[in-house]
Amino acid sequence: MHLRRLIAVGLTGALGAGAPLAAGAPSPKKSSRAAVSYIASKQKPGGAIPAFSKIGSTSDAVLALAAARRGPRPMNRALDYLAEQVRDPAGAEERVDTVGELAKVVLAAVAGGRDPRRFGSRNLIAEIKGTQLASGRYGRRTAVLDHALAMLALRAARAADRIIPARRAARWLKDAQCRDGGWQYDKPVGPKDDLHCSTGEEDDFFTTDTNTSSYAYQALRYRRKLLNHNALRFFTRARDRARNGWGYSPGSLTDANSTALVLQAFASSNQAAPKGSLRALRRLQYRLCGKRGGAFAFTWEPKSGGGYRRSGRDLGATIGAVPGLLGRPLPLRPVAVTKGVPRRKPC
User: Fold this and answer.
1) I want to staple 104 with a disulfide (CB 3.0 to 4.6 A). Which of 59, 60, 63, 335 is the partner?
2) Residue 273: phi, psi to the nearest 5?
């Protein structure tokens, strides 16, 4: 599998102002409820909800449940699992020690009503802040995407209270923006980079992508003077014109995670999503009833006789789709999640 594809799968974790759904199509709220049922059904006995990764996907699942305001029991079990991984690094299934992982857990903890300063006997906020360099970057080699997540995590915990460090972090992220308006996953724009942050060399695996650009845009929305509309124009140009959603790379085939993330970016600045984009996400969902009802496919795949079909039920895609369906950008504030997981309806 190509390295960009690996990253696209590993990273991925609406708007009424967009085009309306076709007559008879379920509402985003109804679709999200069915998705929550599918997500909860995949939770492991220990609380993990593993898809693309255990830590990242379980954290994203908490965000999905919080966005849908459903499933307090699976949410708390997932948070307990994350707290245990944080508490016992030696015995953890996956270590929580990178800036991006710390940020993902903080976003989940805050959305679930937990204190990230005392989560699993660790102060995750202090750990993130402790990585910041004089340039503003969180960590010497931290990926651009993980830096954006760190900014969102600190915002979620209302921890960006020291003005100078917060400004430096935002300025570093703004300066990392590529000239086409997007951001690339791994590094800030360099002197040899072209419009899309490509050097043209064989070992340059990353150029601007929709996932990193969405996280960066959402992180910068609190710094309006640094946020320009080049990023929104990037999303418009990067769209899959055939199916009206977004893939990881500009112009690539629509996938659920990328489309949901771009919808979150538009929602974060109260901008109308392009016409048909919410429907493009909804079309990747299978029927809402039955044992596997509510699941999303990751993307489309060619059929032998021509045309395309959904690529198969995918837990990570279902997790990622929910906040995009509901137009809930990052960071999610703590909400009272009291309603249980919706019952599955037979077909």
Assistant:
1) 59
2) -70, 150
- In angstroms, rounded to a whole number, what is the distance separating the alpha carbons of residues 133 and 169? 9
User: Model's pTM, two decimal places?
Assistant: 0.91
Give the separation between CA 235 and CA 239, rounded to whole angstroms. Answer: 6
Instruction: Tally DSSP H helices, then E strands, for the chain.
Output: 13, 6
- Residue found by looking up tokens 């112009």 in the block: 251
Chain-centroid distance of CA 304 in Å reads 32
- Reading the block at residue 251, the tokens are 């112009």
b/e burial code for range 296-320 (CB count within 10 A of at least 16 → b): bbbbbeeeeeeeeebbebbbbbbbb
CB-based contact 68:326 (threshold 8 Å): yes
Question: Tens digit of pLDDT for each residue in 151-195?
Answer: 999 999 987 656 678 899 999 999 999 999 999 999 999 988 888
* Contact (CB, 8 A) for 305 and 262: no
Distance of alpha carbon 184 from alpha carbon 189, whole angstroms: 8
222 within 8 A of 173, measured Cβ to Cβ: no
Structure tokens at 221: 């929305």
